[in-house]
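SEQUENCE-TO-STRUCTURE ENTRY
===========================

Subject: a protein chain together with a token-level encoding of how that chain folds.

Sequence line: the amino acid chain in single-letter code, read from start to end.

Question of interest: how does this chain fold, as expressed in backbone structure tokens?
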Amino acid sequence: MESDPNIEFSRIVLFDEIGATGAKYHIEAKEEECRGLTRRFQLVAIHFLKADFELFQESEPGCYRIEGTVVGDVIQSCVSTLKDVPAQVHVIVNILLRPSREENKDEEFIIDLEDERDIEYYTSESIDLGETAAQYLYLNLDPFPHAPGAPEFSQDESKETLSPLAQALEVLKKK
């Protein structure tokens, strides 16, 4: 199966490639792929992104497990000064892949609340490990990065700086 040209960092693995004892994959984003992800995620830079994954067949038919790590080195922009903020990401990945509910609309899935794995549903006979790594990198970045010494804003401060019209609207909302 070919990579999707719209995905910057794509590494497709067919489920048929996963043997009885599992399969291991080491992937690294090339410089061009890092630049594409930088644009998509609106970052200053991604210096590197790599991941090590192990894929296993689960005992439940059609289910697979992905375990591994995603490591990245990025530069974000400070939310108050726009200065560069370096960030390192090291995240442990533990995913349970299940067939899409579309195929099994009447089947009930029992979700174990004690299970700490992320549950994702698939619709094709493959998984894109590059896109998985990219998403885990992005989801583990600080959503409000601050440069050292940059002012931080609290919700209380934002209310103090409301214009007179905005303050009047706040009073009306409470009524």
